[in-house]
Amino acid sequence: MTVIPLLRPGLPVDTVAWRGQQPITRHQFQRDLASLLAILPDRAYVLNHCEDRYQFLVGLAATLLKRQISLFPSNRAPDVLAELARDYPQVYCLTDQADAKEVAAMPVVRYNTDADRGVAADPVFPVNQQVALAFTSGSTGVPKRFPKYWGGFVRESQVAGQRLGLDAASGGQVLATVPAQHMYGFVYSVIMPAQWGYVIGAERPFYPEDIRRALAARPVPAVLVTTPVHIRACVLDTVQLPPMDFILSSTAPLDAALAAEAENRYGTRVQEFYGSTETGAIASRRQAESDVWKTFDEITVSEVDEGFRVEASYLPEAQVLGDAVEIRSPREFVLHGRNTEIVKIAGKRIALGDLNRLLLAIDGVRDGTFFLPDSGTGLETRLAALVVAPGRNRAQLLEALRERIDPVFLPRPLRLVEALPRNATGKLPRATLLALYRQLEEKAAPE
Hints:
The chain has 447 residues and is an alpha/beta fold. Helices cover 28% and strands 28% of the residues.
């Protein structure tokens, strides 16, 4: 049976992770792993709730050694976790948080490696070992679950690292603003650096100044794994980030103008990944140069009626994704948006993603989104928008939109808000968005 190590082979003195200005060696990892293994219960499933990315890594190694399957729900809202606990009664939560009220529905084990239990060997796992169950958001129906295997995670990180130009001989560092509990953050801030011998940044900075400080603490330039929301925040705040090897962006399409501005401001390149819960990342583009997505090695795409088909040697089976794309070749495509996000009004059609990009291009708009307030089917004829634009009023924003879009797509209503309820990966869960919208509508006078 083929087995693959979690960490790229190295010496005990090699640095595995970096917390602030403190390096953490492979030897320390081996000691922490032995200590944590001694306190973990014998259960089938685990929710790895560790916010510190290094402690998440130790927890992942320990739970995999106990053949436990990690659950990756679409979010960590208390009601979602309570439902998870009901559906998987053999689940427990491993956490490094003193206050973790959202996981009250399941048994909790506190991360603790204080006891001296000796030194564990570097962990290795069979390629066919199930690592996780990943759940879709359920935004278009009931959430679906997808089993994920060690060999698939490793191969994805290998082909993605090749596309990014990672160098295992010289190594590097990875800092991420996204949580390790999200598939994008899990693969590209934990698995990929571990496989390529890159150092893992333990912290998860959120605000632009936090990102700047975390990067500045690194002795060498780092790879920043992040989202369009964080890139936009850094650019608008005019924060001057330290040198970076490159910026990797995912979870939502990146605007070409924003990508170009980030590259010019920070003297780096911005790479973007496209993927899904079902497939993992499958393609990349450098948006400042081209809007064409190029698939990774071993991955091909083809058009089908309900979206497009993705095939890869390391996927258990082909997957059909419900996005509207133009297939240029088996290895290239242009993304137009999710089929469920195509809005049809008065015989005209446009993607919500295109409307959002035009909205965000307006001077003074810091954040904003178009949405269908009554349903996500694409059949409604009423659009709404929530916008964060300090110093601008509704009339100014609507006038700016009239210059950019057909009048039939103007939002009715457009509401100004202080912030949008984005989650840790920068996405806007529909239920949370609608809850905010209804609150605003109850307070607002009729238009």
